[in-house]
Amino acid sequence: xxxxxLKSEPSAWSWNDQxxxxxxxxxGVRNYxxxxxxxxxxxxxxxxxxxxxxxxxxxxxxxxVKEFYTDPTDKTGKFVVVDVKAKKKLKNSxxxxxxxxxxKLKNIALIKQSRLSVMPISIKEWDxxxxxxxxxx
Length: 137
Known about the structure:
Number of strands: 6
């Protein structure tokens, strides 16, 4: 199993939208590195759901339920989507400042490549973010 972080502007697609929809495609990615990351995803991989722009927080966890296929919203045919479903909301959201201030997360792509919308997360980073969520009450 691999771990990922998916960014979405809450005004475009929020955690609540994902929960209501159940399983849905993760579309609209128009960056080649992010596309390549989508292509590396497998069924059962887990992804943090990150509200970008206004909230800048990890809100919940989604699971990949369908591997990549052509993004129907892309007229060029160069980009792909995966299908994800809401798995669970984090006990406490984890914001960007908490991540930046944690020495165990100093190499996370969220800081190093802040504009990337689909990024891998190491198991150590995943576990640390879960730990922050559980102990941030």
